[in-house]
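Retro notes (design track)

What went well: tokenization of the new backbones is finally stable.
What didn't: we kept losing track of which sequence belonged to which structure.
Fix going forward: every design gets posted as structure first, then sequence, in one message. First example under the new rule, 131 residues:
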């Protein structure tokens, strides 16, 4: 696949709201932002919360960059970064939960959303690599 085949013209592009990974990763980023605010304001936790904010919002940013990739290689590289950020987010969420900053129900919900993002990104990468 050459660069011309990977470049999408503006009129051919899907709207963001039609792209599952963009919709889910943005919704997740908004949850992470709310979690960050809660952790800072209510729990007075500033270190781990900053880490989860950075990695949790980076997933969607990299997915967005992938949607505008100039080549298949660029697309896969950006999505691979999104996958790594999801893994890092998983780690910070586990630490926040196990240290008592996030209650069980809240943790299970946001953790499940992150796992869903991991499954979606992994599936997209597998499909892309088969082509």
């Amino acid at each position: 696949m050459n660069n011309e085949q990977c470049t999408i013209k503006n009129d051919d592009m899907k709207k963001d709201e039609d792209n599952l990974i963009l919709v889910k990763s943005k919704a997740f980023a908004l949850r992470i932002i709310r979690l960050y605010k809660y952790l800072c304001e209510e729990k007075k936790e500033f270190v781990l919360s900053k880490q989860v904010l950075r990695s949790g919002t980076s997933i969607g940013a990299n997915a967005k960059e992938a949607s505008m990739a100039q080549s298949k290689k660029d697309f896969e590289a950006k999505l691979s970064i999104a996958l790594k950020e999801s893994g890092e987010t998983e780690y910070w969420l586990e630490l926040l939960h196990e240290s008592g900053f996030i209650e069980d129900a809240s943790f299970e919900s946001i953790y499940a959303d992150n796992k869903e993002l991991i499954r979606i990104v992994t599936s997209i990468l597998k499909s892309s690599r088969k082509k």
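Added context from the reviewer: Residues 18-130 form a domain with the de novo design (two linked rop proteins) fold (CATH 1.20.1440.60).
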